[in-house]
Design brief:
The complex is a heterodimer of chains A (443) and B (292). With 443 residues, chain A is of the alpha/beta class. Helices cover 44% and strands 16% of the residues of chain A. In chain A, strand 1 (3-7), helix 1 and strand 2 form a beta-alpha-beta unit. Classes of the chains: A alpha/beta (443), B alpha/beta (292).
Chain lengths: 443, 292
């Protein structure tokens, strides 16, 4: 059961929130101020904290900063009676999940908390997938838009006209959208204040915050007939409204875009310990491709032009998409050394050589993947199946032991005794240094 | 025709029917196979983890054959690929050869590798060195009542560059022709050139079994009475693992898997017993009845 901590200095608000959330099925605890909340956080673990922005002593904003420092994965929802853009956007920039304005209805509270809980569930699932499969899905946010993070986007159409819509994360956390209450044409909206209501399954209502202030000049009526466009094409056909912005230059400054958006995501990813899903320039090793090229078999990696025939022809790829030869070459050329060497997928080659035969550039991918695996082993990454095989070879000279009993069985069916070796394989593995490498890897 | 017989790891332990039938047919067709002391694993299992060990292990076997003055006949396709590749590499790369010989405590100058000895798969020896005509002259009964699906596997043909492009890996013919010389019909089928999946079996069983399943589906759909192959790894996938694949994918194949020497042995008039059919996991009773 998800556990929620509600912080508010007004007992009537506190009790109301507790009652609503308890009825919804959450475990709820309360605190009358930030100090009491911090004491509870010391000993308890909360999935979500709902806190008033204005508290006696430490403010809600200070509580947000402290909690995000200590428990970065906790989602925090701000309650504010002062729904101004500064407080809203600043709180969200500091990592608040969302905010609701007083007065709010039980449904509004349930919706926003439900969205936070759903987001946690999605992240958890995604991490599980990422553990098994490092090529997990990623959020898809066009680079040319401005964002109220995890909520809505703005596309500048003309000097002072913009389109707005919901972003990927908002859409994924509310799930299937069943309907939308669009604003009326001519309505004046304010940045950070609700401008539309979106309905999810089970009648959940979600407030969409306006990402800029101005007058609604057009709404996407198609959504009334086909609300699923917001799920399937949230940045395109799923746009929500066109706004004649009143103070666009200033308000765009309150939003995130381009590098700032990337930095925001990276920071979020870092605090949520998911950095490995993103390519970070500092983690790239431009020498990796040269290192591969120096290994026997890796010589031709740099002539790959990425036509993908290796991937198209690979029988393993047909069954398991984790093994993607073109992608592996691409990652290697890019310098993603750690991620490639540390991956499970490099061990999935069946050595059928179909890629090698069909490659127009004679890259010899089968040999490339062997070169990569050779480097992986030197760096301490080896699939346990190979460690076991090397042990068997050292002990028996073959992958399977042939002892006197086996030889008697062979003779019984008319086969000659097999030579049981003189330990030459063990000597070779010692002389080549492979056993030392494997020992180092396990130490 | 005399060769050193290289059995590798899998044939003498997991595919004794292959070894039995090979030893039996070569007596009839006039090839002499010598068992050499000094042969251990070819080196293929360590290729992907440590290239130097791979070369040293292969070289050790090649040296044993060169010491005996014999070309090598190999039953396993992966062993063939390994020994052929290293034999060529050490013959053409002086520096590597010197280093390898030094590590193995051998004198340089004595060993020429591919300059002195050849490494060939049994099937290529039958097809190229012995020839279809000679085999045909030994056939005692034509197996015209059966239709089989030839499975070439991967390493017998690929990488084609190390085999001097002996066959087009996209459209190979040698095994089909060797099947046809027995009188059996070799049928074309989808996925004919596909990998059996054995190369990934130790790493990911699901992938390996799924790969084998695809091929078994295609062969079954072709109406073939059996699969005929030439590699103990492929045999392990289609014969030893056939029941597991049936259980895993809720299918029924009951498709006999024959090593080529077993098929040729029947056509040569050899009794069933010395051809090792009782060691086949999928019992080929109905096929043998059909042959009569």
């Amino acid at each position: 059961m998800s556990c929620i901590l509600v912080v508010d200095d007004e007992p009537i608000v506190l009790n109301g929130c507790e009652a609503t959330l308890t009825k919804t099925g959450y475990e709820v605890e309360t605190a009358l101020n930030a100090e009491e909340a911090l004491e509870k956080i010391e000993t308890g673990r909360y999935d979500t904290i709902v806190t008033d922005l204005k508290l006696p002593g430490l403010s809600g904003m200070q509580l947000l900063k402290i909690v995000k420092d200590r428990e970065p994965e906790t989602d925090i929802i701000m309650i504010t009676g002062y729904a101004t853009v500064q407080t809203a956007v600043e709180a969200m920039r500091l990592g608040a999940f969302d905010y609701i304005s007083k007065p709010f209805t039980p449904d509004e509270l349930r919706s926003v908390v439900g969205r936070a809980i759903e987001r946690r569930r999605l992240l958890h699932e995604e991490r599980l997938r990422a553990t098994k499969n490092r090529v997990a899905f990623e959020y898809n946010m066009p680079a040319d838009l401005y964002y109220l993070p995890e909520h809505s986007w703005v596309r500048v159409v003309t000097e002072n006209t913009v389109d707005i819509g919901i972003d990927d994360v908002f859409q994924k956390t509310i799930g299937v959208i069943t309907d939308i209450e669009l604003p009326s044409k001519g309505t004046i909206v304010e940045q950070g204040n609700p401008c539309a209501e979106i309905y999810g399954v089970a009648g959940r209502v979600y407030k969409l915050l306006a990402s800029v202030s101005g007058q609604i000049v057009e709404v996407n009526e198609v959504l009334k007939e086909n609300s699923s466009l917001m799920n399937s094409d949230s940045y395109g056909e799923g746009w929500i409204a066109k706004i004649k912005a009143s103070d666009l230059d200033k308000e765009l400054g309150n939003l995130l875009s381009g590098d700032a958006m990337i930095q925001w995501w990276l920071r979020r990813e870092i605090v949520e310990r998911k950095t490995d899903r993103y390519v970070q320039i500092s983690a790239l090793d431009p020498n990796f491709k040269h290192e591969i090229a120096k290994e026997p078999g890796g010589e031709n990696i740099k002539v790959c032009f990425g036509c993908g025939i290796c991937t198209a022809t690979c029988p393993v790829r047909e069954i398991d998409s984790r093994y993607n030869p073109r992608k592996i070459v691409h990652m290697a050329l890019l310098g993603m050394k750690e991620r490639v060497l540390n991956s499970d997928f490099i061990w999935l080659c069946s050595t059928c050589y179909a890629c090698t035969e069909r490659c127009p550039q004679d890259v010899k991918f089968t040999n490339i993947i062997n070169a990569i695996k050779n480097i992986a082993v030197k760096e301490g990454y080896i699939h346990p199946a190979f460690t076991a095989q090397v042990d068997l070879l050292a002990k028996h000279g073959r992958l399977y032991e042939i002892d006197e009993f086996d030889n008697r069985r062979r003779e019984k069916i008319g086969l000659p005794k097999l030579w049981t070796g003189e330990g030459s394989t063990a000597k070779i593995l010692e002389a080549s240094g492979l056993q030392d490498i494997l020992k180092e890897g396990t130490d | 025709m005399k060769y050193a017989l290289f059995l590798g790891c899998t044939a003498p332990t997991k595919a004794r029917n292959y070894e039995l039938s090979t030893r039996r047919i070569i007596e009839t067709i006039g090839i002499e196979l010598i068992d050499l002391n000094g042969f251990e694993c070819c080196g293929f299992p360590v290729r992907s983890v440590h290239y130097e060990s791979f070369v040293l292990m292969a070289a050790r076997n090649l040296i044993a054959a060169e010491d005996a003055g014999l070309d090598i006949c190999v039953l396993c396709s992966a062993c063939t690929g390994t020994l052929v590749e290293v034999n060529r590499y050490l013959a053409s790369n002086d520096k590597a050869r010197q280093k390898v010989l030094s590590k193995l405590g051998k004198k340089d100058g004595k060993y020429g590798f591919a300059q002195n000895i050849k490494v060939k798969h049994l099937i290529r020896i039958l097809h190229e060195d012995l020839g279809l005509e000679k085999i045909n002259s030994k056939i005692k009964r034509k197996l015209s009542d059966i239709t089989v699906a030839a499975h070439y596997g991967c390493h017998y043909l690929k990488p084609s560059a190390i085999y001097d492009n002996y066959e087009d890996p996209e459209n190979p013919r040698s095994l089909d022709e060797l099947i046809e010389v027995t009188g059996a019909k070799s049928i074309d089928y989808l996925e004919k050139e596909h990998c059996c999946g054995a190369g990934v079996l130790a790493i990911n069983e699901d992938i390996a079994l799924s790969m084998a399943e695809k091929k078994l589906d295609s062969v079954k759909a072709s109406g073939a009475d059996a699969i005929v192959l030439m590699c103990p790894f492929c045999g392990a996938m289609y014969d030893e693992n056939q029941r597991r694949i049936e259980t895993k994918f809720q299918k029924s194949y009951n498709l006999p898997v024959l090593y080529y020497p077993q098929l040729l042995g029947l056509a040569l008039g050899v009794d069933q017993e010395p051809l090792g059919f009782r060691l086949n996991k999928v019992k080929p009773d109905s096929l043998l009845e059909k042959i009569g």
